[in-house]
C-alpha cells in the first residue's frame, strides 16, 4: 500500500530561521526542521513534501496542487496567517486535513498575531513549541490519516 503524503508548507521569512530574531524563533534553521521532519515521517511511514515560499500566490498554487498529490497539509503560513483570506480559501477548497503550526506562541505576542485565518480551516493548531511543533503535527496527522481514511 502506498504511504500517505503530507505536504509541509512554510511561509514568508521562514527561510531565514536561525539568523532571524533568534530570541523569538531560536537557532534552529529550516533545514534542521526539515531533517527532523523527514526522520519523524519515516518512522510514521509517511512521505514528506517540505517546501517554503515567500510568495502568497506560490503557496496558494501548492495548496491547490495538493488536492491531487497529498493526503494532508501541515502549514506555518508565517505572516500570511494573519492576513490571507485567499490562502484560507485555498486550504478550505483542498478538502484535506490541515494542521497549523507556529514556532512561537502567537497568543503571547502582539495583538495582531492573535488572529489567524488559517486556524479557521485547521483541524488543530500547535504553537510555541519551536521546531518540535512540526514533529507533533506529523504525529497528529499520521493518526488522523490512519483513523479517517
Ligand atoms: C510565526 C508567527 C508569525 O506571527 C510570524 O509572522 C512568523 C512566524 C511562527 O512560526 O511563530 O513569521 O508563524
UniProtKB/TrEMBL annotation:
Instruction: List the Gene3D superfamilies.
Output: Dehydroquinase, class II
Active site per UniProt: 25 (proton acceptor), 102 (proton donor)
GO MF annotation terms = 3-dehydroquinate dehydratase activity
- In which pathway is this protein known to take part? Metabolic intermediate biosynthesis; chorismate biosynthesis; chorismate from D-erythrose 4-phosphate and phosphoenolpyruvate: step 3/7
Record bears the keyword Amino-acid biosynthesis: yes
Listed under catalytic activity are: 3-dehydroquinate = 3-dehydroshikimate + H2O
Q: Which GO terms describe its biological process?
A: amino acid biosynthetic process; aromatic amino acid family biosynthetic process; chorismate biosynthetic process; quinate catabolic process
- The entry marks the following residues as binding substrate, namely 76, 82, 89, 103-104, 113
Instruction: Write down the position(s) of the site called Transition state stabilizer.
Output: 20
Q: Which domain of life is it from?
A: Bacteria
Keyword Lyase listed? The answer is: yes
Q: What is its EC number?
A: 4.2.1.10
Similarity comment: family membership:
Belongs to the type-II 3-dehydroquinase family.
Q: Which HAMAP family does the record match to this protein?
A: AroQ
Question: Subunit structure of this entry?
Answer: Homododecamer.
Task of the protein: Catalyzes a trans-dehydration via an enolate intermediate.
Name of the protein in question: 3-dehydroquinate dehydratase
UniProt source species: Aliidongia dinghuensis
The encoding gene is aroQ
